[in-house]
Amino acid sequence: MSAVSTMSPQSWRGFLSQLDSSGELLHVSDEVDPRFEISAWLDQLATGPALQFDSVKDSHLRIIGNLLNSRERIAAGIGLPTGELQQRIIDSIANGLQPRQVADGPCQEVSVDTPDLVRELPAPHFFPQETGAYITAGVIIARDPVTGRGNASYARLKLLGGNRAMVGIAPNHHLAVLARAAHARGEKLEIAVTIGNHPAVLIAAALYLRLGDDELEAAGALLGEALEVVRCQTMSLDVPAHSEIVLEGLLDLGEQHEEQLVSEYHGMYEPYGSGPVASFTRLTRRSDALFQVIQPGYYPEHTLIGGIAIAAGLAQTLRAAAVPVREVAVGHGGCGRLDAVVSLGPHKAGEPRKAMFAIWGNVNLIKNITIVDEDIDPWDTNQVAWAVATRMRADRDLLVVPGGRTDRSEPIKQDGVIAKMGMDATKSLADRPDWDRALPPAEVMQRVAARLEALK
Asked: Which residues, at least 6 apart from 362, have a Cβ–Cβ distance to it below 8 Å?
C-alpha cells in the first residue's frame, strides 16, 4: 500500500496520526475480548482519549473507539476551530460538492466473497441484555434507482451468522423509505456499509436532510473538496474510496429478524421489535484495515455525532424562519436528541417562542428547549443553568405543550406523543434595567489570558 493512499487527506488516518502525536490516542496492547471488554474500556474512558486496541481476541484487525467524543475532537477532525464548526456544517448543507469517482481506492485492496461477518469483523457485544454483536459505526450508502439520488445514514447492524445482519432502521428514516419503495417494486435495496470513515463523512451521515439530498455531497463540502468515491465490486453504488472496510449487500424487507432489546442513546434498552435483514455478497477492505466502534447507549461519541449534526440543521431552519439565532446546541446532557438550547442575538418580543415552535415542527425528538441571549454559550451547561436561574420566571417564561408528536426512541412516550417544554431564559428589561456582569476589565482579562497561554 502506498503511503499516499494511506495518508490521504480524505482518510481518517491522518487525524489518527495527529491524535497519536498529541497524546490523545491511547494504545491498548493487552489482548481484549470483544465480548463486553471493549465496551468496558470505552465506558471508563468515555470522555478521554481515543482508543486503539492493538490485540483483539480471535481477530487480525485492530479497533478504534472514542474517536469523536467531544465538540473539540469533532472540529479538529474536520480541521476547524470549535467555534467555526456549526457554520461550516450549515454551509455544507447549502453548498454540497458532488462526489468524484476514482478508478480504485484503498478500501478495495482485499476482497472476500460471501463473508462470514463474525469471523471477518471484531464486532463487540456491548451490553448484557442485548442478544448479539453489533456494527455501530457503519455509514450505510444507498441510492434511489428512480431518481439516482444517493443517501448516507447510520443504522446499527446486528450480526446473525454467516453473511447476514439485521439492520435497525427507524420507520421514518430515508433508508427505510428507499427500502419500502424497493420492496413495493418487488426488489431488494442495494446497500453498502462503510466502516472507518473520515470525520467529515461521519458527521454528514448524521445530518437531517431532505429526502433526495445526498449526504456525501455535504461530506465533500466539509472536507473542502469533492469526496473521492469508488464503485462497489458487486453493487451499483459509490462508496468513500479512503474508508477502511466496505460491506456490499442487499436489504430485504421481506425477511425480518426479531431483535429483542437494544441499547439506545438515552442509556436504556428499547424493544423495537423486528428489523429487516441484509445479506452481504462481498467484503472489501484495506490490507491493514482498522475497525471503528462507536459505543452505543448514553455515551458522548454516540450522542454528540448526532447532536452536533442536528443542532446545525436546526440553526439553518431558524435562520430560514428569520429568527436571529446565533448558535444552537444539542448536547450530551440532553442525550444528543431530546434537549436543545438556542442562543439568540438582539430579538423582539415573541421570537423565543417562535424559535421553539420552529424547532418542534422540524425535529420530532426535540422535547425541551431553552432560549438564551447571545452572551450565553449554549454548549456550556453552567452558563445555561446560570441564565435559567437568573433570567427565567416560571409564571411568565415557561411554556408546556401537551401531546406533541415524538419518535419511537423517546424513553417516556405515551401512544407516540410527549409533552414539550420551552423555557425563555433571555433578559427582560421589565425585570431589571441593568444586566451588567461583575467581571474584571476586558483588557486586563485579555492580558492575563495571554500570559497564561505563554506559560503552557
From this structure: 208, 313, 314, 317
Closest CA to 168 of 126, 127, 140, 199: 140
Strand-strand pairing, 110-113 and 274-285: antiparallel
Which residues is 285 bridged to in the sheet? 110, 245
User: Which grid coordinates belong to 36?
Assistant: 463486553
Give per-residue pLDDT as tens, 139-166. 999 999 888 899 999 999 999 999 999 9
Cell output for 331:
448536547
pLDDT digits (tens, 9 = 90+) for 266-325: 999 999 999 999 999 999 999 999 999 999 999 999 999 999 999 999 999 999 999 999
DSSP string, 70-93: SHHHHHHHHT--GGGHHHHHHHHH
3-state secondary structure of 180: helix
Nearest in space to 293 (alpha carbons), one of 89, 410, 121, 166: 121
Sheet holding 25-28, edge to edge: 25-28, 50-53, 62-65, 290-293
d(C-alpha 149, C-alpha 19), whole Å: 35
Whole-Å CA distances, 343 to 177, 306, 346: 34, 19, 10
The C-alpha cell of 233 is what? 465490486
Start-to-end CA span in the chain (Å) = 39
Residue 361: all three cell numbers together: 415542527
The Cα–Cα gap between 18 and 16 comes to 5
**Across residues 222-232, what is the average pLDDT?**
97
155 by Cβ neighbours in 10 Å (0-12 / 13-18 / 19+) ranks as: buried
456 by Cβ neighbours in 10 Å (0-12 / 13-18 / 19+) ranks as exposed
Q: Which three cell numbers stand for residue 412?
A: 417516556
Among candidates 195, 241, 208, which has minimal Cα distance to 99?
241
Handedness of CA 32, 38, 43, 47 (dihedral sign): positive
Q: Report residue 352: phi and psi, to 5°.
A: -55, -40
| Nearest CA among 451, 448, 47, 15 for reference residue 202 | 15
Residue 355 CB partners (closer than 8 Å, separation 6+) = 318, 323, 325, 342, 344, 369, 371
